[in-house]
Amino acid sequence: MKMSKPTIDIQKEINPHFKRVWKTKEPYNILKGGRNSFKSSVIALLLVYMMLWYLRKGEKANVVVIRKVANTIRDSVYLKIQWALGKFDIFNQFKCTVAPFKIVHKATGSTFYFYGQDDFRKLKSNDIGHIIAVWFEEAAEFDNVEDFDQSKVTFMRQKHPLADIVRFFWSYNPPRNPYSWINEWADSMVGEDNYLVHSSSYMDDELGFVTDQMLQDINRIKQNDYEYYRYLYLGEPVGLGTNVYNMNLFKKLDELPSDDRIIAIYYSMDTGHSVSATSCGCYGLTAKGKVIRLNSYYYSPAGQVRKKAPSELSKDIHEFITATSTCEHWKGARIQKRTIDSAEAALRNQYFKDYGQHWHPVAKKKKIDMIDLVHDLLAQGRFYYLKKPFSTGLKHADSNDIFIEEHKKYQFDEKTLNSEDPRVIKESDHTCDEFQYLCTANARDFRLKI
């Protein structure tokens, strides 16, 4: 089957800033940059362009695309490759499957394979063959450079016989910690033979891909939190500082907004028992996208002669949820999710036994990544808390003061700041943890970067 020549004007699809990437002959290409820099779009287009050469010859050629977390494939790289095929007007020549994730050329069998990290480790025993390129998207999510090194030889061994080399691409937003392993690795590769290290940001856009609406969002974050703007949109590893959060971004409400109703309710819980506190936050999502901490349950066993048992905490939490979810001020808003620390089993099982209701264990990320999701919400200027929650009359509830106080005190351990794995000081941090669980578990609902 002879292919018709695709009609695409590359100069209208690729910003001049990426010319070096488009023309690269290097085996190893590291693309780092801020949000909306379009580096992933460039790689997707380039991978399709590379495959076209083989398709025209009737040859089978394969591309491997890898992300750390498999459940992020569908809404990221899988759709991005489909978009790139559409740009070349050849999408209808491919068949797409999701179990497993593959995009297959109907005539030649050429395939884009998509894998999560657990899957690609299995590739050592699976021969795909005819590989021309490998793309590690969101490369900063991986644990270390060994994750890449261990797989490179496997893929190189399966090189297409007509290809001179297998080309590797890494794309990522630089972590804010300059001592993160991927920041140090990319810096060490600058000037090395066979490596292209490329930086980009939204400011490199000359073709108008950054819309006015995008710019409004960018400028809002720039005004709210300039350091976070530098990190998120300029791709600069700005460092951490000792204080974890900018408390000016925790916006106090004396009353609920009259022009923006609450449409959904969320609960998030960090648990203690005999030693540490149990914190459960009630949050509302408004029609305009605000996230408001409406009320808190906070019980500390410190200094108590008799500590509450899981059965007692289960009863307390159920009463708190019943009272807050039926509050007349957000009548009609339904509970969307109850999130709990994934390490907690006793209270989760007790609650299900007592009330037949599941709490969803949070799929934890690295601590710094969960903190970053909170930063994203704060910097967008969309987080608020009620200074005086509507009274439930319950013990251990009806105050958000401890939530604010714990966040004021929340700090990084100075001794770990200049390391790859910065740690927070684990004292009086229970509301901080459950807020992070909330943002991690509901990142899609809250329009946070994932």
From TrEMBL:
Residues 27-236 form the Phage terminase large subunit N-terminal domain. It comes from Halalkalibacter hemicellulosilyticusJCM 9152. Pfam families: Terminase_3 (PF04466), Terminase_3C (PF17288). Residues 270-437 form the Phage terminase large subunit C-terminal domain. This is Phage terminase. It comes from the Bacteria. InterPro entries: P-loop_NTPase, Phage_terminase_lsu, Terminase_L_C, Terminase_L_N, Viral_DNA_packaging_terminase. Signal peptide: none annotated.
